[in-house]
Amino acid sequence: xxxxxxYSKLRxxxxxxxxxxxxxxxxxxxxxxxxxxxxxxxxxxTQYFVLHRSEKNxxxxxxxxxxxxxxxxxxxxxxxxxxxxxxxMYKNTGSLLDDYKGNKEKYFQHGCASSxxxxxxxxxxxIATNFSPWITNQSWGxxxxxxxxxxxxMNPPHNGHPFEHLKALYSLYPSSDVLWVGHGINMISELFRxxxxxxxxxxxxxxxxxxxxxxxxxPKSKEExxxxxxxxxxxxxxxxxxx
Length: 243
Prior knowledge:
The chain contains eight helices and seven strands; from the N terminus they run βααβββααβααβαβα. By secondary structure, it is α/β, with parallel strands linked by helices.
């Protein structure tokens, strides 16, 4: 059958992990370059993990979606949030999983899948996490291609490695039956590939931003290996790097 986990157990673990990293709370503004570029609120809030809420205590496969940050824009997350929430990402994840099932070879050929034979669960639990826990006051795309992006990523509110929270999540769920999904191709593709390589993650996919209605479909763009981002991704990117 492979690795499955009950919703109640998963919920308790995610909430505990969020608390351990000090998420769902405000932090002091970091000093130096991050503060100088003015992309965080005066008392910035953070979000590390969000578990999609379920009304049933089902035992299901697990999918972990990794983006760039939880939300962005003026007035976002001025008060503490919850590590359990209803998210539109669940429905969009299902839609793009169906797209992979109909285009497995193309996903693999274009570097958006670990293989062309990933076992896709029909029903699943979904954890959403991100490379940066900071909630920014403007679109990440306005700064991501600038030198400031490294400062934001390398100065998380927690102590230790910038991606310590992702490592902790992997340590909780190291099974090869867990499917990791990187989303927001223009933002995280190389970071995500490095992470899954470092952790030796067997099953992974790359999608467009799951926070928006998915429209990443094949065929790909003319440049081999470069998937077309959805319109939401394109709007967020001001001047993507040449590849």
